[in-house]
Design goal:
single chain, 354 residues, 6-stranded mixed beta sheet, disordered C terminus
Length: 354
């Protein structure tokens, strides 16, 4: 379990993260949502030890992650939104380099290498330079390095960014599998992805947590309601009698087509009026073509809770790196036809989110 207690961080006179607290258990996938500049990236960077908090604590199974940074790093995997990669390295070289940085034993590395190659779909690009890969494949390489050392905690920022629909389904399936045993914090702007992967959602806005709850409870924070959408065969039907009988409902949307019309009616969530509206349509002599009920979407909840103006955060790019040398050096082992070698650049490309 990873637990955050009263965490705060400033950049100049802007409080990027303001006294937030939450915990995530093993076997739990939690969505971490917020508009740009809300404090998500700052929080995740503190959770992996990249940034120091101004106050508060981050504990992994009761121990501060800053007490023994190397031991903590061995238990956390991190995929930033813009993952830093060495463009002149081949994929195999890069994964071997990451394994050396983490001092993985050669036997464990080979076992985990086989796992990430298969599950991240890297077979066809293993001996290809990273700089020549598509965005989707670079994203998969980034995910591979995050899970290569088999961490207990995964912090994933936009893990399916740049992937095609088939790849998205594969990576979502992998995240669900990993989430059965590991602690997973997932940040995404794709609400369907959060709904597909997460049971619980944390929404942060202007540095403070505004919601931490199960997805099915989010509607309670903005007024619980649902929509009745019906399609009827009619031209400009008059629903004034309906709204007189049921004043707690209201028309949200009406679209007229050549011989039919679609209406979207807002209904309190505790009411199920499908039978009543079907009878009303029948009594009016209209033909009911379709009727279904839907709750508020996660997009609507997110928009309602974060729609206020907020200040963007400054560029967060504290360059605080250490040279790391590995004793148990692992060779990338390219295929026999690859006899030329490529040296990595001195510094990786590292684009930072504002």
């Amino acid at each position: 379990m990873i637990e955050i207690k009263a965490l705060s961080r400033r950049f100049g006179n802007i409080k990027a993260v303001d006294n937030i607290s939450f915990g995530i258990n093993a076997g739990e996938i939690v969505g971490f949502l917020g508009p740009n500049g809300a404090g998500k990236t700052t929080t995740m960077r503190m959770m992996v030890g990249y940034l120091q908090p101004d106050q508060g604590s981050i504990e992994l199974e009761g121990k501060s992650i800053f007490a023994n940074p190397l031991a903590t790093s061995a238990r956390i995997g991190y995929l930033p939104e813009h993952n830093p990669l060495y463009p002149q390295m081949r994929v195999a070289e890069f994964l071997a380099y990451i394994a050396n940085l983490r001092r993985m034993p050669a036997s464990l590395y080979q076992q985990r290498l086989d796992y990430v190659i298969e599950n991240c779909g890297l077979e066809v690009v293993l001996n290809q330079e990273i700089g020549t890969l598509s965005k989707g494949f670079r994203q998969r390489v980034g995910l591979a390095q995050a899970i290569l050392h088999d961490p207990d905690v995964l912090i994933l920022d936009e893990p399916t960014s740049g992937l095609d629909p088939n790849q998205i389904l594969e990576i979502r399936s992998l995240i669900l599998e990993l989430g059965q045993e590991k602690t997973v914090l997932l940040s995404s702007h794709i609400m369907q992805e959060v709904q597909a992967l997460c049971d619980r959602v944390i929404i942060i806005n202007k540095g403070s947590i505004v919601v931490d709850d199960q997805i099915e409870n989010l509607g309670l924070y903005i007024g619980n309601k649902r929509y009745l959408t019906l399609e009827i065969e009619a031209v400009e039907p008059d629903f004034s009698d309906w709204f007189f009988l049921y004043p707690q409902t209201q028309l949200a949307e009406q679209k007229q087509y050549e011989t039919s019309v679609t209406l979207k009616i807002v209904v309190p969530s505790e009411l199920d009026l499908r039978k009543e509206i079907s009878q009303f349509v029948s009594e009016k002599g209209w033909q009911l073509l379709g009727l279904y009920s839907e709750k508020q979407s996660l997009e609507e909840v997110f928009h309602s809770l974060t729609m206020e103006e907020h200040l963007p955060l400054p560029d967060e790019d504290p360059a605080d790196s250490e040279d790391t040398q590995a004793d148990d050096t692992i060779d990338p082992q390219p295929t026999p036809q690859e006899d030329d070698t490529h040296s990595p650049q001195d510094e990786p490309t590292h684009e930072e989110e504002q």
